[in-house]
């Protein structure tokens, strides 16, 4: 239900859902997992969560709807958080909290960027949004920041959270490294593909009169970018 809720919601609903409401689920698992989930249930749930990371990544590779692509990407990252919170070690919980905060900022930023393109092109199809670098060169910088943080480029907080979760899962079961590594690779592929499709190429006929970014839009992007940069430089701010 989550991708459908993301796609059909207005932009404010998508941003709040990605940045805040999804984190309530992770917080609930952290609080309830030690008492309410038996050990026998943890194994299939972690297997489903890590397998979900791969399946949502493969779904993103073939998505032509930009908002749906970001929504499935959001689901994949939260699969890592769910698997880490179920293990219930200090290292896994710390990684889950870091990734939840990083994902909240990054996913909200991507949804906002997608809505800016939708307001100008009246479509969510990736092929109709190509060449936006020529129409809005300043927004390309924010697209690059959002795409690179989404694929966990070093030394962003997204990478720190994912590395902690992968290390915890590998310590719990070495077999999980295959699924987490494959999921990280697929995430890098569709994130770069999304950036290159929307920003490079020639403008379509309908996009040649696209108006540049407004001040309020640049301010929203700045308010997403600054926390990402500050937390990357000083991770202790989370604690």
From TrEMBL:
It is found in: Mitochondrion membrane. Pfam families: Proton_antipo_M (PF00361). Coiled coil: none annotated. It is an enzyme of class 7 (translocase). This is NADH-ubiquinone oxidoreductase chain 4. Its main location: mitochondrion. One of its GO terms (biological process) is ATP synthesis coupled electron transport. Belongs to the complex I subunit 4 family. It is a multi-pass membrane protein. Its EC number is 7.1.1.2. GO terms for cellular component: mitochondrial membrane. GO terms for molecular function: NADH dehydrogenase (ubiquinone) activity; NADH dehydrogenase activity; ubiquinone binding. InterPro entries: NADH_UbQ_OxRdtase (IPR003918), ND/Mrp_TM (IPR001750). The keyword Disulfide bond does not apply. PANTHER family: NADH-UBIQUINONE OXIDOREDUCTASE CHAIN 4. Core subunit of the mitochondrial membrane respiratory chain NADH dehydrogenase (Complex I) that is believed to belong to the minimal assembly required for catalysis. Complex I functions in the transfer of electrons from NADH to the respiratory chain. The immediate electron acceptor for the enzyme is believed to be ubiquinone. Core subunit of the mitochondrial membrane respiratory chain NADH dehydrogenase (Complex I) which catalyzes electron transfer from NADH through the respiratory chain, using ubiquinone as an electron acceptor. Essential for the catalytic activity and assembly of complex I. The chain crosses the membrane at residues 12-30, 42-61, 68-91, 97-118, 139-157, 177-197, 218-238. Residues 1-186 form the NADH:quinone oxidoreductase/Mrp antiporter transmembrane domain. Keywords: Electron transport, Membrane, Mitochondrion, NAD, Respiratory chain, Translocase, Transmembrane, Transmembrane helix, Transport, Ubiquinone.
